[in-house]
Design goal:
Number of helices: 5
Helix content: 10-25%
CATH architecture of the largest domain: 3-Layer(aba) Sandwich
Oligomer: single chain
Shape: globular
Largest sheet: 7 strands, antiparallel
Number of strands: 16
CATH superfamily of the largest domain: Nucleotide-binding domain of ferredoxin-NADP reductase (FNR) module
Strand content: 35-45%
Strand order of the largest sheet: 4-3-7-1-2-6-5
Bound molecules: flavin-adenine dinucleotide, FE2/S2 (inorganic) cluster
Structural class: alpha/beta
CATH topology of the largest domain: Rossmann fold
CATH class of the largest domain: Alpha Beta
Length: about 260
């Protein structure tokens, strides 16, 4: 663990439901808020009694460095997130972070962000942190149906060009968010960044490859330690210059990786 990772007892300032199974939690954690960058994440100890024993990883959605808070947006999946949903303001949660490598966008060309479900979180943080990206960024957001789609006007910066898709057509385009990519890719150099379910990201990488665009994926592999010690989060990766397969630890060498090099 490097010294830039903090362990902090964060105070829950707010923990409210914003959609079916979706919660927004604001945590006062000044040390982590001061350092965390786009695509980095925190490991949350969801229960001080250590059940579940392992911390759970969550990306930062946005921060206020002056006030010292970090927002996370989480979906209730199992035991850890189920407990998180029950916490009242003033409760303290132990956080470890920032973890992972921050993502730095290209200085040139347009940016297409393609999110599925809570995969919107690291992509939203990127545009909160880099307001200069807004004029050259398009955000595509997909969810299963309108109940699973949070109100994006609350979660994304104003002036961001965004478009919705739902699998059942109950909100926005009827179909997969990946269908929107060709019509929303601007002319010229484009970088695509995606985060969401594994099959969705694989499809985004394939479309980007066909269109000849750079593509990065923010991976959410299962994690144990979150800082490189357990090798529990590896992804198979093809080194361009060597043409052989390697493994990379998503927690320390990611979570953002070159989507064209991943063995999906
Ligand atoms: C770097 C990173 C950033 C993340 N950011 C967010 C975020 O911003 N918001 C958010 O809601 N979630 C995020 N996740 C996923 C989140 O960590 C898991 O949903 C959470 O750990 C589930 O914990 P649990 O105890 O509730 O579920 P568990 O009881 O651990 O699991 C319940 C079920 O969900 C499956 N599951 C658990 N974790 C994952 C996972 N990572 N991917 C796919 N399936 C899983 C398990 O196999 C099991 O079937 C992120 C994960 C990573 C690695
Ligand atoms: S989670 Fe332990 S090495 Fe990545």
């Amino acid at each position: 663990m490097t010294s830039s990772i903090h362990q902090e007892d964060a105070e829950i300032l707010e923990n409210r439901q914003i959609g079916t199974g979706l919660f927004l939690m604001r945590l006062r954690a000044p040390d982590i808020a001061s350092k965390i960058g786009p695509a980095q994440f925190v490991q949350v100890q969801t229960d001080p009694e250590l059940a579940p024993f392992l911390r759970r990883p969550f990306s930062a959605l946005r921060v206020d460095r002056t006030a010292g808070w970090v927002d996370i947006l989480y979906e209730v999946i199992g035991r850890g997130t189920g407990r998180m949903a029950m916490f009242e303001p003033d409760t303290r949660l132990n956080l470890l972070g920032p973890l992972g490598m921050p993502f730095t966008p290209s200085d040139t060309g347009s940016l297409l962000l393609v999110a599925g479900g809570v995969g919107l979180v690291p992509l939203a943080f990127l545009v909160w942190e880099h307001a200069d990206l807004l004029p050259r960024t398009t955000f595509l957001m997909g969810a299963a149906n309108r109940d699973r789609m949070p109100d994006l006007s609350d979660l994304l910066p104003q002036n961001l060009d965004w478009h919705l898709a739902t699998d059942d057509g109950s909100l926005g385009y009827h179909g997969f968010v990946t269908d929107l990519i060709p019509n929303h890719t601007r002319a010229g150099e484009t970088t695509i960044l995606t985060c969401g379910p594994h099959p969705m990201m694989a499809r985004v990488a394939a479309i980007a490859g066909d269109m000849g665009h750079r593509c990065y994926a923010s991976l959410e592999n299962h994690m144990a330690c979150g800082f490189g010690a357990c090798v529990g989060c590896v992804v198979e990766y093809r080194e361009a210059e060597r043409d052989d397969l390697r493994y990379r630890r998503v927690c320390t060498e990611g979570p953002v990786v070159d989507a064209h090099a991943i063995v999906w």
